[in-house]
Amino acid sequence: MVKIAVIGVGVMGYNHVRVLSELEDADLVAVSDSNINRAKEISTRFRIPKYYKDHKEMLEKEDLDAVIMAVPSKFHKDIFLDCVKYNIAILVEKPIADTLKSADEMINALKCKDIVFTVGHIERFNPVIMKIKELLNSNYAGEIYLVDTIRSGPFPKRLFDVGVLIDLSVHDIDIINYLIGRIKQVYSNLIFSDRREVYAKVLFKISDTIKGSSEFSWVSPKRVREIKIHGTKGTIVGDYTNQEVWFYENADFIEGTFTDYQSMVVGGSISEGKVIKFPISKSEPLKNELKHFIDCVKNKKKPLVTAEEARETLKIATLMFRSGQEEKIIKVDEE
């Protein structure tokens, strides 16, 4: 059993507690929250032995193997550095930190430590992404040339310190980097409400042959979480929310006919073919993520999401914001 505690039991912290309380290999021994009444409420509801107002007191008094940090990103660095002193495994909710400077301090603190650390980029554990990764590894869609994502919905009233890019874009940036390749260039248009961006439309470039677009929005009452990956053989569509994966075949594709995707597109060799819906074994991404984290703690495995990958995701999100502010194309490697 992994002795584990949760720091921060707001909306996301509550979900961590809910899932951990159901896992056989997790021994949820304590929670902490700056709102002691909230900590007590969660402790009582889930029959957790201890609750604290001060995470430092919890770290000092409890014999922990691991901790989940589900606090606002501006507190990540300081609480993380407190946890590192105890040589325990740490899962930090996304993003890794509020700034690249803080992320770098966190990563540097790990250099002399042999501890498991990961960041909660939860969509990697969505069955949709697991299936798409499998399809791409088998070259099911052919040569990939375009990626489009949409992540939109109503304004999340619980958020006060970040905009739509830090809250939403980090999901899709991480998935694009993971599935297709590293984003190397961005160009953004933003809409602001007060100081925060509430809408972003981003064009990006992965390579000379792979481009894409992403929409991140808090201005729509309709919740959408979707990725489309266009290849020479057809288009893969993933619906994160309903956990569905579809393939729309390009009936004009003939193996060996096209030297590259441009000759196919320019020649107009794209037409409707078969539509395939793949069977998906639906499961809760958070449960998959926490099972993976606990397995890594027990067996000293390398987590699927590394600190360096999480830092890169944060960097690209900040550059998307800067691109929109400055109204210019930004190359990631030049920053």
Percentage of residues in DSSP E strands: 25-35%
By secondary-structure content and strand pairing, the structural class works out as alpha/beta
Oligomeric description of these chains: single chain
Low-confidence runs of at least 5 consecutive residues? none
Cα shape: globular
The counted number of beta strands is: 15
In whole angstroms, how far apart are the ends? 44 Å
Number of DSSP helical runs:
10
Helix proportion: 25-40%
Strand order of the largest sheet: 14-13-12-11-7-10-9-8-15
- Report the C-alpha radius of gyration, rounded: 21 Å
Q: What is the averaged pLDDT score?
A: 95
What is the helix/strand order? EHEHEHEHEHEHEHEEEEEEHEHHE
Query: How would you characterize the largest beta sheet?
Result: 9 strands, mixed
Report what the structure shows.
The chain is built from ten helices and 15 strands. The radius of gyration is 21 Å and the shape is globular. The chain is 34% helix and 28% strand. The chain is an alpha/beta fold.
